[in-house]
Amino acid sequence: MPDLPEFSLTRAQQEALRRWSRERPDRDVRARIILDAAAGVSVSDSARTLGVSRPTVSSWRSRYAAQGLDGLEHRPRSGRPPRIDEADVIAATLAGPPPPRPAWSARALADHLGISHTALSAVWRRWGVAGGDAAAVTLPTAPPLPLLRPRLLGLWHAADAAVILLAETPDTPEPAGGALPAVPAPAEQRRALNAALGTALGNASTAEGPRADALPALAELLAEVGAAHGAPGVHAVAFGGVGAPPEGGGGGGPAAADVTWHTAPEFMSWPATLGVVCQLQLRHRPAAAAAAHGSLLDALRAGQAAPLVWRCPAEGAAPEPPTARAPRAFDQLALGSFNEKLVIESIREAGSLSRVEIAQRTGLTPQAVSRITRNLLTSAFLVEDSVRPGGKGKPRVPLRLRADAACAIGIHLDPEMITQVVVDLCGGVLDQRVLPLREGADPDSVIDSMTRMAREAVAASRAVSDTLLGVGIAVPGPLDAGAGVLYDPPLFSGWRDVPLRAALAERLGVPVTVEKDATAAAIGERWIGAAARTGDFVYLYLGAGAGAGAFLNGDVYRGRTGNAGEFGELCAFALGHLTPEGGPGRVPECAPMSSALDKAAAAGLTWPQAPGAYESLCAAAAAGDARAVRAFREVARVVARGATGVTDLLDTTLLIVGGPAVPAPVAGLFLSEISAAVNRFPLASRLRRVHVEHSLLNESAAAVGAASGVFHASFAPRLRTHARAEARAT
């Protein structure tokens, strides 16, 4: 052990040390350590007398010798929160760790939360938690509130104040010995709930107290809950200084007077305490809890203007539709969701990032990044990668998306076939199925086929059934994207006003989205392309037809009705293909596959008419057959004129070309013709160089993009804005 400094304190220094100690009781031990040193007491004797460890005595002596009284001040460890939200600690305890561990050990949870083992043990003692698999807790309110089998009854929230209403439900007799049987809900469900409520924690307002005009709503909620619940009594856990409203004021009355009030201390936040109640309810009454929690999370996500008032629906009752919210610039709940999605997007684009790198890229504070990543790790959405040495200091731990945390089904409806894929969160294709369609297939039979294929994909893998977020469908336009209705698309006989989304959602029982095929391909390119596709770009989708999708200002551009990107009309106007009335005429080359086959046949190339005719033509071009090469170049030159119009219109510098008509053997022919045109004809060609690149997706671009659209809708960082609220209302 190195030599410790010897102290020779003057009378003035000793008096300053004693005054410093008297200011706060927790300073007494540190002051006595220094006074012992000045008196010549050994480290071992001082440690034994004061009841602390020898390293503790040595550390405080060294710090005083180097820095004086300033060295005796507590400094939080790097990366650990100076103030602990104890309710958040208990909610994480109850949520449990990712599989295969059934419960947290104290040390593992402390490391996960970034707090000391001693601090965690103290929190557990205050809340009456004996270990990581707790079945009951005691809220350290005034007075304390034991929770065994709580039932959540209601929530009132305004500014930084909140009231949680709950009651005990002794619906199961207590067994001999007083032990309560725990019936754990699925761990994934508990962690997902904890993460969702964690978002509300990040959005809690910091305004000073509730406005007076918000209190009548609390009184009315108390009266309603008290009258509906009856015995045993209702408990109200109050946060932010709110107290019981006066009887008879704003709806208060005898029912409200029967409520027992509990005041929460500053070290427990209302969203995390709400999470604790929900975790216990989910553990002991999982069936009844599911509907209540779904209604609660809908109310939190709806961004209702203050005060937020939620009452638990009666068990067995149908859920009420969320209350329409008034348009706002943006709301706090949307901001928290935005920040969480911003972290997800940053990690997805980079592949893996440490917490420090996330803060640097997003501009979020380290505390916000720590909270968000902790929620995402708890919900098993992120995983820690191998540690990267980062020079001096603690090595950085990269975080990455867990590929199997979620998946989506993508379906591309083409006039000739149905293509279906199952895609994981990182873009891996888990399953792929193709079904040729007979000519003139009717909507009912096609929807039956889609349903059967989706069910087969789910049945083939338990992972798919457990983590499926939804189904995305890519279709040719025109369509009403908001309603999910397909309006008489070309090459589809009898497909007029087909409610595709509603029909599939009803049969599959999962959320369904509908996109134009070109728009879906652009979303897939953005999601799968990660860092290579972070800027603005236009996706030129070539298949049975030709369309364009665009990513502008960080989001996909769909247009008002979801029909943006009618590429064929640009080609028609550019080439002067007009109808007698002056409108855009049909351009054969905007059906690239059939047009290339027709041109090659006219040049004398023949092959058996079979489903593989286009593949045979591509193989002939790749082998150098002049007639096949010429056919593709003629199609590409016409398409390139439309691409010139898109480039001039949107002033973009990246053009992606993909789709079934552009497989690898002929991609170079398309890219060379299009690149030459978009860098020669536009008016601003001297100011910008347009990069034309082949799609990172394969011929299943639309199907993969449809699945990616489900991820994009769930995880892309976007704020709720005034304009979007008005558009939804319209």
From TrEMBL:
InterPro entries, A to Z: ATPase_NBD, Homeodomain-like_sf, ROK, WH-like_DNA-bd_sf, WH_DNA-bd_sf
Coiled-coil features, chain-numbered ranges: none
Pfam families, alphabetized: HTH_29 (PF13551), ROK (PF00480)
Gene3D superfamilies named in the record: 3.30.420.40, Winged helix-like DNA-binding domain superfamily/Winged helix DNA-binding domain
CDD domains named in the record: ASKHA_ATPase_ROK
Family from the record: Belongs to the ROK (NagC/XylR) family.
Protein name as annotated: ROK family protein
Organism: Streptomyces johnsoniae
